[in-house]
Each structure stands twice: as C-alpha cells, then as structure tokens.
Specification:
By secondary structure, this protein is an alpha+beta fold. Helix content is 35%, strand content 18%. A hairpin with a 6-residue loop joins β5 and β6. The protein is globular, with a radius of gyration of 42 Å. It starts with 11 loop residues before the first helix and ends with a strand.
Amino acid sequence: MPKKYVEITDSATENNCLLSLLKERVGVRLKMWGKGPQLLMVTSLAGKPCKLKCHIYHRLRTARPMMEGRQIDPVEQSPGQINDSLETESGLRVCSVFFNMEKVTIAAVLICLFITACKDETKQKGKITPTATTTAQASESNPDSVLLHLTQDILTAFKTKNYSAVADFIDPVSGIRFSPYGYIDTIRNVIFSKEKFAEQAGRSNQDKIIWGEFDGSGDTINMTLNEYIAKFVYDVDFSKPETRKVNEFIGHGNSLNNLLSVYKDCDFTESHFSGFEKKYEGMDWRSIRLIFRERDGKFFLVGIVHDQWTS
C-alpha cells in the first residue's frame, strides 16, 4: 500500500535550509529517529495517526487545537506554501506579543495607581484638616451641627497631640483662655494668642507656666503646656464622651459657673462623663467645655474650660 506522505530528498542543502527557516521563524519542535534528517512536510489540520521517522509539530493559532498524543497525516506542500504558512505564523506571533505587552502595560499602570492611592490614603490617616469645618458659615440653617463637628475635630487633635491643628481653630483676635475649673478666673487664667500657642506647643523644652490654683489645697498650678493639657484638658477620652450638648450645661458641682457672664454672645459645647467608679457615686464626673465666638461669619475657639467635682 503506497505511503500517504511525501519525503523530502536527503539533500543536505535543502534540509538544512528548511530546518533553519523553521527554527528561526516559528520555533517548531523537532523529534527525529535515525541517522539522516529525513524531513516530512505536514499541515496542522489532518486527523489520522501515522508512523513517521521525523515529526514537525507545527500548530497555527488559527487552527483548532490538537488533542494530546494525536499525530497528523501529511500533505505535500511546495516550498512557497511553506513560506506563506511561516509568514502567517510569524505575523500572528508578533501580533500576539504586542497584544500581550499592551495588557501587561495596562495592568502595570493600574497597579501603580492603586499603590499611589494606598500611600495617599495612609498619609491622610490621623491627619486633622480643620479647613472644612472652620470655613463653615455660622449662618447655616443648623449651626449646632457645625459646632459639634468643630468640637469633635478639636478634641481629636488634642487626643493625637496635633497641636498645630488646634492652633488653626483659635480666634486670631482674642486668642484662647484656659480655665482648669468651672469658675473662670479672668485675672489669673492663662490666655494664648494663636501664634504663641503654636510656638509653645512646638517646643521640646517648654516653659513652666502658672495656670491658677488647685482646688482644695490652693497650691499653685505650675506646669508646662503639655502637662496642663494632660491634667486639665484631655485627662479622659473626651473625643468619645458619654454625652455632648450645645449651649447646655451637663455637669454641676458646688463651684460657681460664670461662663455665660464672661463669654456673652458666645456659643459653647460640653462633652461629659457622669463618672467612672461606682464607689464615688458620680462625684468623679468630668466635663470639658469648648467656647466659640462668631467672627466674620465663622466660628473660632476662644476658651477651654475643664470642670469636675470640687470640694
């Protein structure tokens, strides 16, 4: 029975040229038996198994994939047809490479954008940006909401010790007064300008300042700014109070509360804890009052009053 395939001559010149052409342009995989390079020209779409001395596995991307282990029947082709097939395969491979490179480039750009966004997000965490609230107009339909947002921003800045952010809220004209107790001593309480507060808070070696007198003992409160804040501003977590109200007093002790007489035409918020230990029966309550003055249609911080049970 005659063979169904055609063998190329054993001419070394023809065979070597074809081998070189196939390897360079297509990169086909060759599997040979015997001593001489007897090449067989085959196509990629025939379907019958056959026994070959030399197999050229050549699959175009446009051809249907072959099942693993299948061999193909050869069909005689002219050198011109082989070159046409090789040109088609080479073009397809180049197009595929550029298409894949484009997809890789797009993926790389997306990854870079994602990483940049994550870095920006990480930088923003814990950063207080008061401009959104300090520029809020006091004449808005709900000024209480503005005051509550301002209070939260300021107390969060104190919690994170971001005192430069606190300075941005301070009234640029009258500055800020600190009162360690509910009674505001207009003579002995300390007042900082916006610039002085920022300068003092930014120093590593802060000055000792007399802030008033301790309740009960009458001893002088002689502390640095950081020490005072830890004792008479943020001694408990006022950023998460039990209760917070606008222009309403919550904590009431046995000391005089003169806030309304000192700060006429001002607004205030009070953040309050009713107590921490049952044995004190509510006598360990704490409050912090932030006082705001409206100026040029905006709210500015003019006072911080710390209050607690006094003897």
